[in-house]
Amino acid sequence: MIVNACLRNGRGGSPTAVLPDDDFSESERRAMPERYGTSHVVFVGPRGSLRFFTSEGELPGCGHGTVAALAVLGGGEHTLRAGGRTFSGSAVEVPGGVEAVFDPGPVQVRPATTAERDAVVSALGAGGSCVIATLGRPRMLVEVTDVAGLAPDFRLLRAATDSLGLLGCYAYRAGERFAARMFAPSIGVPEDIANANSTACLAAHLGADITVDMGDSLGRPATIVATAAGRVGGIAVVTA
């Protein structure tokens, strides 16, 4: 199935393939995103087990992938298993789709070092305050004044994130509604349409409930809602 995860006003969202798990090889799993024309694929196994893949390999977690899986699993409360942990999620039918939310897990946040900041910000081309937030894997959260105008050097950004062991860089602009863009060339996704786990990291860092718009630069408007109490999600619709 293809699920558009984290819609905004019934439009856009991140197309995500949701497949029943089977005896696929590693190379077969990595080939699935290209086959289905999506950045990520979620494999759903018995008892709510989830595995997430991009063309570069397996991820311990994927927020919009979890939203997509919950939309396929259907209404109600679900116990999910991914990345070595067990957590809760829920799906409720709403006008225009399914509202899916889940517990992203504990977030660890620390200040970025000067070397980390310089390496990523120089590739990003802009940046203010920076922190490293870990949820499954570490990523850098960078506050900027102009999200839409960012034009990263992806070669330099991949080199920086690879050398620092980072998943990617989540650049955000604060406001009543936040705006953000997630760049993750190290996992084969130059820019993510919607990144719920990084949004959960930002909510934990700020200690606030936030609504974040993403995907506009890619023509796929997406919205993610995250709480300081540790819930994140969005609206999803199964399209095929």
Counting DSSP H or I runs of 4 or more residues, the number of helices is 5
The CATH H-level homologous superfamily of the largest domain? Diaminopimelate Epimerase, Chain A, domain 1
Shape verdict = globular
Number of domains: 2
Helix-strand sequence: EEHEEEHEEEEHEEHEEEHEEE
Low-confidence stretches: none
Quick summary of this structure?
The protein has 240 residues and is of the alpha+beta class. The chain has helices at 26-36, 63-73, 114-124, 154-164, 196-206; strands at residues 2-5, 14-20, 41-44, 50-54, 57-59, 76-82, 85-94, 97-102, 108-111, 130-135, 137-143, 169-173, 178-184, 189-192, 210-214, 222-226, 232-238. GO terms for molecular function: isomerase activity.
Would you kindly provide a written description of the structure presented here, covering whatever features stand out?
It contains five helices and 17 strands. It is an alpha+beta fold and 240 residues long. The chain has two domains: 109 residues, Diaminopimelate Epimerase, Chain A, domain 1 (Roll); 119 residues, Diaminopimelate Epimerase, Chain A, domain 1. It has a 17-stranded mixed β-sheet that branches. Helix 3 runs antiparallel to helix 4.
